[in-house]
Structure formats: C-alpha cells, structure tokens
# Entry
Amino acid sequence: MFKKYHYSLLLCFFIFLVSCKPYSKEAYLKQYSEFIETISRENDTYTDDDWVRKDKKFKQFNEDWYNEFETELSFSEKLTITKFKAKYTFYRYMP
# Structure
C-alpha cells in the first residue's frame, strides 16, 4: 500500500514539474504571452512578495527557457519576446 502511494506521489510531482516547463517553442511563446497578459490584468493588486515570484518566473522566461529555444525562434518571434520584456518592465515599475 505504501509503495503504491509513494509511486503515485512521485508521478504527480513529475507531472507538475513537466507541466511548468514549456516543451516546445510554441508552448514557450504561448506561456510567455499568457504570463504577460496576467501581469497586465493583475499588476495593480500585487504585493512585494508577489513581484518577487513574478520576477523569478520572468527570469525563467528570459534566461532558462529563452536559451533553450533561441535557435528555433524567428526574427519576428524574437521581436515579440522583446515586446513582452518591455511590457513586463512597464507593469513592474510603473508608478
């Protein structure tokens, strides 16, 4: 019984980890777009702690995941990512 529970728990944890990371360039762009849309709708309600979490996610989009898909991105897609960065910076630091 315990082994069955243990394996189920590990499986759920693995699925959670995999679901957070984009698995393709298209998924990366879609998740990044959704992240920016959420920021634009909810930024005025964020606390300092919320922004710390958002900053970490923003860093993942711009470093870890960008580096993973950079060679697959077209010039137009790279411009879109630049736009996402500008929007995030605007919402993050606007008065």
In short: The mean pLDDT is 88. The helical segments are 2-20, 25-42, 48-69, 75-93. The two ends are 55 Å apart (CA to CA). The CA atoms of residues 43 and 61 lie 18 Å apart.
